[in-house]
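Q: Given only this backbone (171 positions), what sequence would you predict?
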């Protein structure tokens, strides 16, 4: 038995949004931009709620806010690319999180096998089709089937505690 037992940290209700955000903000996440072309227009948005779901079939998920003005333009295309950003792409992440601008202005991209845009700033990309959507409170849980994917060498952009950083894997 030890005398160094610390009391548990203060705890609050998860319904206190600011505290909930601070707690979850301690979990570092990658930064992903979803991109598509629909009715001749390019659309894209940044987010950090992204996970792998299944290897067989290859499924991933991400969670756009129900209040998103962009997801309604991406959904009808039924196809999109999930671009995992490299560590030098903070500006692109911020650009794709900003409302009311042309998010693709000055942003280099090329077509995926589906024809959807892959950002040059992506360290990895997944060319996907929409598989399913589920209610997730104030967000929608989007499940996507990966049809093609690719990667290049480098480090990933991460987000934690309201700030961007870099993750470099031990080599």
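A: Predicted residues:
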């Amino acid at each position: 038995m030890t005398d160094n037992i610390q009391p548990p940290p203060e705890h609050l209700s998860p319904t206190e949004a600011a505290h909930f955000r601070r707690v979850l903000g301690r979990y570092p996440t990658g930064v992903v931009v979803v991109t598509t072309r629909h009715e001749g227009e390019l659309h894209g948005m940044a987010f950090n709620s992204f996970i792998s779901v299944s290897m067989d079939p290859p499924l991933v998920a991400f969670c756009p806010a129900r209040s998103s003005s962009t997801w309604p333009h991406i959904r009808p295309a039924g196809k999109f690319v999930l671009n995992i950003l490299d560590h030098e792409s903070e500006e692109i992440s911020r650009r794709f999180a900003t409302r009311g601008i042309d998010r693709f202005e000055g942003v280099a991209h090329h077509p995926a096998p589906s024809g959807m845009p892959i950002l040059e700033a992506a360290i990895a990309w997944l060319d996907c089709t929409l598989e399913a959507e589920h209610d997730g409170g104030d967000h929608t849980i989007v499940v996507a089937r990966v049809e093609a994917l690719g990667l290049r060498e480098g480090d990933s952009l991460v987000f934690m505690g309201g700030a961007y950083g870099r993750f470099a894997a031990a080599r």
